[in-house]
Design brief:
The chain is an alpha/beta fold. It contains five helices and five strands, in the order αβαβαβαββα. 35% of the residues lie in helices and 15% in strands. Helix 2 (27-35) links the parallel strand 1 (15-20) and strand 2. Helix 3 packs across helix 4 (84-92) and helix 4 packs across helix 5 (125-137). The protein is globular, with a radius of gyration of 15 Å.
Protein backbone atom coordinates (compact mmCIF):
# COMPACT_ATOMS: atom_id res chain seq x y z
CA UNK A 1 0.00 0.00 0.00
CA UNK A 2 2.77 2.42 0.84
CA UNK A 3 5.23 1.38 -1.87
CA UNK A 4 4.43 4.32 -4.19
CA UNK A 5 4.88 6.80 -1.33
CA UNK A 6 8.15 5.16 -0.25
CA UNK A 7 9.52 5.23 -3.83
CA UNK A 8 8.43 8.86 -4.29
CA UNK A 9 10.55 9.84 -1.27
CA UNK A 10 13.68 9.08 -3.33
CA UNK A 11 13.04 11.45 -6.22
CA UNK A 12 12.40 15.11 -6.74
CA UNK A 13 10.02 14.43 -9.63
CA UNK A 14 6.34 13.49 -9.41
CA UNK A 15 5.80 9.78 -10.00
CA UNK A 16 2.54 8.53 -11.46
CA UNK A 17 1.28 5.04 -10.75
CA UNK A 18 -1.65 2.77 -11.46
CA UNK A 19 -4.00 1.92 -8.62
CA UNK A 20 -6.79 -0.61 -8.69
CA UNK A 21 -9.99 1.11 -9.73
CA UNK A 22 -11.74 0.02 -6.53
CA UNK A 23 -9.41 2.26 -4.49
CA UNK A 24 -10.99 5.31 -6.14
CA UNK A 25 -14.41 4.30 -4.76
CA UNK A 26 -13.41 5.33 -1.22
CA UNK A 27 -13.92 9.11 -0.97
CA UNK A 28 -10.90 9.96 1.17
CA UNK A 29 -8.52 7.37 -0.28
CA UNK A 30 -9.61 8.24 -3.81
CA UNK A 31 -8.87 11.94 -3.32
CA UNK A 32 -5.48 11.22 -1.75
CA UNK A 33 -4.26 8.87 -4.45
CA UNK A 34 -5.45 11.22 -7.21
CA UNK A 35 -3.35 13.96 -5.59
CA UNK A 36 -0.45 11.49 -5.65
CA UNK A 37 -0.69 11.16 -9.45
CA UNK A 38 -2.49 7.82 -9.42
CA UNK A 39 -4.87 6.73 -12.14
CA UNK A 40 -7.24 3.75 -12.13
CA UNK A 41 -6.65 0.38 -13.72
CA UNK A 42 -9.18 -2.42 -14.04
CA UNK A 43 -7.13 -5.47 -13.06
CA UNK A 44 -9.88 -7.87 -14.13
CA UNK A 45 -9.38 -7.18 -17.83
CA UNK A 46 -6.81 -5.79 -20.24
CA UNK A 47 -7.40 -2.12 -19.45
CA UNK A 48 -6.56 -0.32 -22.71
CA UNK A 49 -7.39 3.08 -21.22
CA UNK A 50 -4.92 2.61 -18.36
CA UNK A 51 -2.25 1.45 -20.83
CA UNK A 52 -2.82 4.52 -23.00
CA UNK A 53 -2.62 6.79 -19.95
CA UNK A 54 0.66 5.17 -18.86
CA UNK A 55 2.18 5.49 -22.34
CA UNK A 56 1.09 9.12 -22.56
CA UNK A 57 2.66 9.91 -19.17
CA UNK A 58 5.98 8.40 -20.25
CA UNK A 59 5.96 9.90 -23.75
CA UNK A 60 5.53 13.33 -22.22
CA UNK A 61 8.77 12.85 -20.24
CA UNK A 62 7.22 12.09 -16.88
CA UNK A 63 8.01 9.21 -14.53
CA UNK A 64 5.83 6.26 -13.67
CA UNK A 65 6.13 3.50 -11.11
CA UNK A 66 4.70 0.09 -11.95
CA UNK A 67 4.47 -3.09 -9.98
CA UNK A 68 4.93 -5.93 -12.49
CA UNK A 69 3.13 -8.48 -10.34
CA UNK A 70 -0.02 -6.34 -10.45
CA UNK A 71 -0.65 -6.86 -6.73
CA UNK A 72 1.07 -6.98 -3.36
CA UNK A 73 2.87 -10.09 -2.23
CA UNK A 74 1.26 -11.57 0.84
CA UNK A 75 4.35 -13.61 1.79
CA UNK A 76 7.20 -11.38 0.57
CA UNK A 77 8.03 -13.70 -2.34
CA UNK A 78 7.93 -12.56 -5.94
CA UNK A 79 4.78 -13.64 -7.73
CA UNK A 80 4.08 -14.02 -11.41
CA UNK A 81 5.05 -10.95 -13.43
CA UNK A 82 2.51 -9.54 -15.86
CA UNK A 83 3.66 -8.28 -19.25
CA UNK A 84 2.15 -4.79 -18.89
CA UNK A 85 5.38 -3.05 -17.82
CA UNK A 86 7.26 -4.50 -20.80
CA UNK A 87 4.44 -3.55 -23.17
CA UNK A 88 4.27 0.03 -21.89
CA UNK A 89 8.06 0.40 -21.91
CA UNK A 90 8.23 -0.78 -25.53
CA UNK A 91 5.32 1.37 -26.72
CA UNK A 92 6.65 4.51 -24.99
CA UNK A 93 10.26 3.66 -25.94
CA UNK A 94 11.57 4.18 -22.40
CA UNK A 95 13.69 1.91 -20.22
CA UNK A 96 12.50 0.23 -17.05
CA UNK A 97 14.51 0.94 -13.92
CA UNK A 98 14.09 -2.16 -11.73
CA UNK A 99 13.51 -1.51 -8.04
CA UNK A 100 12.97 -3.72 -5.05
CA UNK A 101 11.81 -2.76 -1.57
CA UNK A 102 13.14 -4.95 1.20
CA UNK A 103 11.69 -4.89 4.68
CA UNK A 104 8.28 -4.24 6.15
CA UNK A 105 6.28 -1.18 7.08
CA UNK A 106 6.12 -2.20 10.72
CA UNK A 107 7.07 0.52 13.18
CA UNK A 108 10.84 0.84 13.74
CA UNK A 109 11.62 -1.66 10.98
CA UNK A 110 14.18 -0.92 8.29
CA UNK A 111 13.19 -0.42 4.65
CA UNK A 112 15.72 -0.56 1.83
CA UNK A 113 15.12 0.53 -1.77
CA UNK A 114 17.39 -1.28 -4.22
CA UNK A 115 17.72 0.17 -7.72
CA UNK A 116 19.05 -1.81 -10.68
CA UNK A 117 20.45 -1.00 -14.08
CA UNK A 118 18.04 0.15 -16.81
CA UNK A 119 16.40 -2.47 -18.99
CA UNK A 120 15.94 -1.03 -22.46
CA UNK A 121 12.81 -1.88 -24.41
CA UNK A 122 12.74 -4.84 -26.75
CA UNK A 123 9.85 -6.06 -28.84
CA UNK A 124 9.55 -9.47 -27.17
CA UNK A 125 7.45 -8.74 -24.07
CA UNK A 126 8.05 -12.22 -22.63
CA UNK A 127 11.82 -11.82 -22.85
CA UNK A 128 11.74 -8.30 -21.41
CA UNK A 129 9.50 -9.41 -18.55
CA UNK A 130 11.92 -12.24 -17.80
CA UNK A 131 14.89 -9.81 -17.85
CA UNK A 132 13.03 -7.61 -15.36
CA UNK A 133 12.25 -10.54 -13.09
CA UNK A 134 15.86 -11.79 -13.19
CA UNK A 135 17.14 -8.30 -12.39
CA UNK A 136 14.91 -8.02 -9.33
CA UNK A 137 15.64 -11.57 -8.17
CA UNK A 138 19.39 -10.92 -8.34
CA UNK A 139 19.44 -7.81 -6.12
Amino acid sequence: RFDPVFIACFTNRPISFMAKKEAFDYPIVGKIIKKCYAFPVDREKGDISAMKTAISILESGNVMSMFPEGTRSKNGELGEFKKGAAFISYRANVPIIPMKIEGTYKIFSKLILKIGEPIYPIKDKNEMTELLRESIENF
